[in-house]
Specification:
Elements: H1 7-31, H2 39-57, H3 60-96
């Protein structure tokens, strides 16, 4: 039996991936470097993976929480990451002229 054919193994992979992505996002945000804003992207991926885990494991209140976190992570990306990327593009575009 393959690792991916066992339903329990697939659920555990989503749980593990969500935990790792959450930790990476927190590490990025806590370092306050120029890459810190990418923590929002890691958290978005983590909440999507945790939402899949919650759905597959039948944890519907956790699923509702994760879906709300998807919304807040998208807000974080729009508020912090997108302006940072746009600012970087403007600096690079100005430097190229």
């Amino acid at each position: 039996m393959s690792l991916f054919t066992s339903p329990l193994a697939v659920v555990q992979i989503f749980e593990f991936a969500g935990a790792i992505l959450s930790i990476l996002g927190a590490e990025l945000m806590s370092r306050q470097t120029r890459y810190a804003h990418w923590g929002w992207a890691f958290w978005l991926l983590a909440t999507i993976t945790f939402a899949m885990f919650s759905l597959m494991a039948g944890h519907y209140f956790m699923l509702a929480t994760q879906l709300w976190f998807v919304k807040t992570n998208i807000q974080g990306i729009r508020t912090y990451l997108m302006p940072t990327l746009a600012s970087k593009q403007m600096r690079e575009g100005t430097a190229a002229m």
